[in-house]
Design a protein that fits this description.
The chain is α/β, with parallel strands linked by helices and about 325 residues long. The chain has 3 domains: about 1-100 and about 200-220, D-Maltodextrin-Binding Protein, domain 2 (3-Layer(aba) Sandwich), CATH 3.40.190.10; about 105-185, Periplasmic binding protein-like II (D-Maltodextrin-Binding Protein, domain 2); about 220-313, Double Stranded RNA Binding Domain, CATH 3.30.160.40. The protein contains 11 helices and 13 strands. Strands 2-1-3-10-4 form a 5-stranded mixed sheet, sandwiched between helices. A 5-stranded mixed sheet has the order 7-6-8-5-9, with helices on both faces.
Amino acid sequence: MAAEPIIIGTRGSRLALWQANWVKDALIRNHPGMVVDLVIIKTKGDKILDVPLAKVGGKGLFVKEIEEAMLDGRIDLAVHSMKDMPAEIPSGLCIGAIPQREEPWDVLISREDRPLDKLKQGARIGTSSLRRAAQLLHLRPDLAIVPLRGNLDTRLKKLETESLDAIVLAAAGIRRMGLADRVTQVLNEAVMLPAVGQGALCIETRQRDPRIADVVGALDDPDTRQVVLGERAFLNRLEGGCQVPIAGHGSIGSQGYTLTGLVCDVDGSHQIKRTLTGPAARSEQIGLELADALLAEGAGEILERLNTDAYNE
């Protein structure tokens, strides 16, 4: 009797399908003859495209409906961009695997191939992310931030159609789509901290599902998991989602685990940024300690002000 097919749930964008197919191919490579099917699920974040993410509200904008399908048994696992994952995962689900991470940075793509410091005064920059907007304004208060929604192809087209001077996107998506030649400047850690988990995939599964856990576990990269779980502990302590100006990036090196975290006012006027280093095995504890250090310096007031402003709108 043939084994039951494994059903992967995914969003329908070209990038999401690339990611889901990458996981499908990896599963089949490890288990020749395995049948793996994809099911496309539309999320709230996919349906509401005319409102900036920060104003849509709620957590899990790009994952909730997919998680519901997994809890209902309609799919066996889900493939997400880790940066879209809320800090808290619903009861009954877990992170089954985190494959090796792609480049975590953001990139600038400008119409005239000018880097950030060479863009004209008052340049119009397209981004859907408060995190990116806040850090851009911290560096260049003169910039005009233009809300930019839609999938990667749509945002690249809007660079021309919306009279933008540049847009900021995740390097990982650009590389996965084979568009690295479009990049004007890589905005590394010295310029802009990425979103927590950016560049990493999350393979989400049900808890206590040994059939899926067994096949998915082989795709896990232990170092990437250690790094990302530290970043997510930092995010969780701050009770943040992808709609708030929180950034964090961890790495493992000769000194152990190093984590840099940031909270910034939306207008970029006030930025709190700190770095902690410690044993890699303590990455999650380091994430919590770093969040506490930022809260002690006023990060909580920034986040509370942002939440109050969103509520009043």
